TrEMBL record:
Coiled coil: none annotated. Keywords: Signal. This is Nuclear transport factor 2 family protein. It comes from Sphingomonas colocasiae. Residues 1-21 form the signal peptide. Residues 29-127 form the SnoaL-like domain. Transmembrane segments: none annotated. Gene3D superfamilies: 3.10.450.50. It comes from the Bacteria.
Length: 132
């Protein structure tokens, strides 16, 4: 009986850790990046909160995009036209924030560097700040 109790406690303790790892900020942002590179708009948008806000660093403090419908429309068009691919040059994780230095390459061959700061809340990307 004591062995069964220990096994039950061990399993109960590992489930939250596994669930927490699946929704860690870095895991969520990586899932988003993988969907971006596959041009999978549905999987990409699924990593974002319903009330997502996207900002340009250094610009006015109001978001340039708000909400999943606007995000979906923007990226569906981008994926269809430009077929972008982002490669991580470097990544830093601090609590709920993931900062990526990305090198983005378009189907045309044009590439550019960008910095994205992702804020993850409740397993979804809630805010993003971009600089390029």
């Amino acid at each position: 009986m004591f062995d069964a109790l220990l096994i039950t406690l061990a399993l109960a303790g590992s489930a939250p850790a596994a669930a927490q790892a699946a929704t860690s900020p870095e895991t969520v942002v990586q899932r988003q990046l993988d969907a971006y590179n596959r041009h999978d708009e549905a999987a990409f948008v699924a990593t974002y909160a319903q009330d997502i806000e996207i900002f340009d660093l250094g610009a006015e403090p109001k978001p340039r995009l708000t909400g999943k419908p606007a995000l979906s429309a923007l990226y569906a068009g981008l994926f269809a036209r430009a077929k972008p691919r982002a490669d991580i040059v470097s990544r830093a994780v601090t609590g709920a924030f993931v900062t990526d230095h990305e090198r983005v390459t378009l189907a045309s061959g044009r590439s550019f560097d960008a910095v994205a700061v992702y804020q993850v809340e409740n397993g979804l990307i809630r805010r993003v700040w971009f600089a390029q």
